[in-house]
Amino acid sequence: MKNTVPPPIVTLICAVLIYLSKPLFPELIFNHSVQLCLFFLVSGFIIILISFQTFKEEKTTINPIKIEKASSLVTYGIFKYSRNPMYLGMVLILISVAIKFNFYGGILIVVFFIYFMTYFQIIPEEKTMLKLFGEDFINYRNKTRRWF
Q1: Cα(46)–Cα(70) distance, rounded to whole angstroms?
Q2: What is the distance between the alpha carbons of residues 132 and 72, in angstroms, rounded to a whole number?
Q3: What is the CA radius of gyration of the chain?
Q4: CB-CB neighbours of 34 under 10 Å
């Protein structure tokens, strides 16, 4: 694995960067931003919790740094629609932070987060999953999108 920083820490760092970079970007004010912010925040947490619960039901590792300890390939439930719903949940949380504090800078940081997670976390995870689950992972990968 290329990444040794846990994804929740990467998410937290990006959220702080969204907030701290606020003075560098113009402010965007629009109607219903609070409701939209809450929608993305709650959606992100729900997706993460559902994903976590599914891993728990399968009794497989949730630790993305120790992916080689995965005991089963989860392909049902929310994982039927996204191979990485936890990371998708983190993106939704970051979008929520961007809406609340710094939309323009936040969107740039969200794009960076997606690129960073894909290159340093997801692609190495996929290589490990291919070694662990072979043809089953190839079939899953061919049917299910990486992000959404």
Answers
A1: 23
A2: 9
A3: 16
A4: 10
Q: Is 3 left (phi over 0), alpha (psi -120 to 50) or beta?
A: beta
The two three-digit tokens of residue 28, written as one number: 């965007």
List, as one string, the DSSP characters of 80-120.
GT-S-HHHHHHHHHHHHHHHHH-HHHHHHHHHHHHHHHIII
Q: Per residue of the chain (148 residues), what is the pLDDT tens digit?
A: 555 789 999 999 999 999 999 999 999 988 999 999 999 999 999 999 999 999 999 998 888 878 888 899 999 999 999 999 999 999 999 999 999 999 999 999 999 999 999 999 999 999 999 999 999 999 999 999 999 8
Contact 25, 105 (CB under 8 A): yes
CB-side neighbour CA atoms (13 Å) of 60: 17
Is pTM beyond 0.85? Reply is yes
